[in-house]
Specification:
Blueprint (H helix, E strand, L loop, with lengths): L21 E2 L15 H10 L4 E3 L7 H8 L7 E6 L1 E2 L9 E2 L3 H15 L4 E6 L8 H13 L3 E7 L3 H10 L4 E5 L11 H8 L2 E5 L17 H16 L4 H16 L3 E4 L5 H9 L7 H9 L5
Parallel strand pairs: 1-2, 2-3, 3-6, 6-7, 7-8, 8-9, 9-10
Antiparallel strand pairs: 4-5
Helix pairs in contact: 1-2, 1-9, 2-3, 3-4, 4-5, 5-6, 7-8
Amino acid sequence: MSTTQTGTRPAMDRSAFGRQGFGAMRLSDETTDDGDRDPVAVVDAALDAGVTMVDTADAYRNEELVGRAIRARRDEVLLASKFGLVWPDDAEGSYEVRADPAYVRHACEASLRRLGVDVIDLYYLHHRSERTPIEETVGTMAELIGQGKVRAIGLSNVTEEDLRRAHTVHPVAALQERWSPLRRGIERRLLPTAAELGVAVVAHSPTDHGLLHQVGGTADDPRTSGVRATLDEIAGAHDATAGQVALAWVQHRESAHGVAVIPLPGTTRVSHLRVNVAAADVRLSEDELGRIDALGAVS
């Protein structure tokens, strides 16, 4: 994937991201006879459909699988991975954040080895650190770019202050945060900062981990049932699902907020992958977008 660097702009062309990415968080090597759930077939289907960005992380414990899945098609992929979340072996469910320079270097080498590649196109800090100043972390990530091991850097789970401080050290190409019609916290302060700095926004969980694809998936939650009812009504006019409307709404935020926005749905099924990709062609009217905007945020 081609990259550029001009002044303070991010070191990655907008076109490299594509209209939609593929989040590989739940992808696993579980044995199954169901071809719809074959992980390599899922990734192939994404690439066949024109998806370019495949996003994983060392914390997902599937970099080897992702590496195998893209190996024959590496030139078609913007490969993204993350570092920083560490699970102690004896503490299931809890984690710590490591972002010190020595760990950054160690984590990158380990990810390159597991992925079976020479360079990671987009390398993220997975979570802000309370102990290591972000300038130190990003400075080391910039060294990785200079060494040809990383092409561009990103941040996830950070504050707007973190983003500004990081960007003064090296241009940040992408900010990955949760964003859907149900979860709109990014819009308060992070989104305006990203737009000001020219940082692309990668919106993970745009269907709320598949909840908005499920029939009646929000019916028991009064905080979300009103959002779901509106999405269902709009979906009926487009022969679509509520999840597809949610994805389309996130996609439309690009023009509304003046920032590159890349929805990042994830799935473990080829059939679901195709449903997600089809959402990129759902064209919502200004009235429909306004109705969803007016619902406000659940959180």
